[in-house]
Amino acid sequence: MLIMSVSGRLLFVSYDVVRNIPSGRKLSVTQPGFDVYEITPGTQGEPDIVAAGVDLGGGLDSIVYGRVQEEKITLCAEKQCADIKPGGKVNHWSVDELEGYEFVEVAFDADSAYALVRKQWDDRVDGNLTADDARLSLVRLSPDKADLEPITTNGTPYELVVNDKKPSWKVASSAEELSDLLLYEFSRMPNGGGISFGDNNLEGRVAWNQVYYLNGLISLAQGDLGVSSPGLVEYARRRVRAEVDLIARLADSDYPGYRVKRYSLDREPLLFSLHLGRIASLLERTEQAGLGTPAVKNALASIKKELLSFEHTVEHPIGCQLVVGEICRTLAYRQGYPFWADGVNVPYNYVSGYVGGLLAVSNDAASVDYAAELMVPLLVQEKFSELPKTWRYWGFEGQKGWGYSNGKSLNTSDWVGNQAGLDIAHITYRSMDATTLLILNIHRPDVVNAETVVHIKKLVSAGMLLPSVNEFFYQTDSVATLDSVVSARYSRSTQAWQIQSQIWALSDLAKNNE
């Protein structure tokens, strides 16, 4: 995640995916922190561990910032910093003043650090976006305090540096500057900007990282978004062609193929139709952009067979019943599979991810009708006829929960249900649902009507759905104009997946600044 070198020492920061227990694997989540290793000229065999489990509030996709001063190592990530001293002793910096904030960028001085920060925001908890949620501030960090001050500027601050204890940064406002900002954003992402280039899907990074930012790059490569400079377009085209080709080649073998260990009980390699659907959508969009390779065509054919058959996937089709008594169809996790909710129906985004992929690879009448049937429970149970601004993550048993007497899961005998938590789906999952509804409208306007399409477009403009939903509206020449606060909020990315939406935010800013 981060490599640092000083005379005679090579240090690298890693994240233990085996110790980490994500929410998709078990009900109890474990974030193990970061491990720091050292290689010196005398190192033989495995690297020496300097410190294990350094908790900075970060995870697998976090950007980690660091410096080395003699025997002291300083690391920052997400919203915390810590010093690691000889012997592995960890001293966390006092950042109480940053409660509710997150790092956008961090730059180090000799005895302190500076950061561009913004408020953390989750509409399930914090409500609608406000100007305060979109504003960047500067903070001076030291081991014993954090001093926060707002930044007033007519553009987007980026590329923070510190010289002689004086912080400075660039400001992007013109189309050319915003294009430079995007290139800079990619360059500072994990692995030297490589992010997940060449990864397999065993940790879910193809489905939940590459699909996001590569779709963003396809948008840049496809057309003039106002920030598509020739250099940026060339970068996008070259990277998409090379990176998606590697993703496609994973289909050549069953293992690792598109299997994932991250979400199974004991890290068994499982195949999810949700992941296949998301990957299929990316591959087909790559083809449509003229950036595909023979491997992409072969992978699409392979994925199509699995999406139509469910032969090897965790999910499989089941019947269901709506509140009104109407029989319906949905998907469920197969009973007995090593997944915490085996036997239970899947959340809505599992269905929409599958349906989006199915419609990407097969648009015959049978596939379209089946796709429409699968989306009916979301439309009915979440009352889309009333044009909701938000909707729930789960339906049926997953929403209500289950007990010893009526549970279908062999691995989790009782659970209170999604209704006991935040209930509302995260904006990323709602955006998946919405995008699939928009695609279904093209094929079945009787199921998803024009009023729903207009409503979804308004939700994008207001920041109730991700700006990246504009990928669909761009194809219909009707891109949703973002509210200024939405463009400002998404103008910077703290993790790679956010770049997909950042592109549309900067596109709006560029057009508004013409």
In brief:
The protein has 514 residues and is an alpha+beta fold. The chain is built from 15 helices and 16 strands.
- Rounded to the nearest angstrom, the distance between the terminal CA atoms is 38 Å
Strand order, biggest sheet?
1-2-3-4
**What overall form do the CA principal axes indicate?**
globular
Number of helices: 15
The gyration radius over C-alpha positions equals: 23 Å
Enumerate the spans where pLDDT stays under 50 for 5 or more consecutive residues: none
Query: How many individual β-strands?
Result: 16
Percent in strands: 15-25%
The main sheet comes to: 4 strands, antiparallel
Helix share bin: 25-40%
Average pLDDT works out at 95
Task: Describe the fold and architecture.
The chain is of the alpha+beta class. The protein has 15 helices and 16 strands. It has helices spanning 123-126, 131-134, 175-187, 205-222, 230-249, 273-288, 294-309, 348-361, 365-381, 396-400, 427-443, 450-462, 470-475, 484-489, 499-512; strands at residues 2-6, 9-15, 34-39, 48-54, 64-69, 72-77, 80-85, 89-92, 101-108, 113-119, 137-142, 145-150, 156-163, 166-172, 315-321, 327-333. The strands form five sheets. The protein has a four-stranded antiparallel beta sheet with strand order 1-2-3-4, with no helix packed on it. A four-stranded antiparallel beta sheet has the order 5-6-7-8, with no helix packed on it. A four-stranded antiparallel beta sheet has the order 9-10-11-12. A hairpin with a 2-residue loop joins strand 13 (156-163) and strand 14 (166-172). Helix 3 runs antiparallel to helix 15 (499-512) and helix 5 packs across helix 6. It is globular and about 70 Å long. The two termini are 38 Å apart.
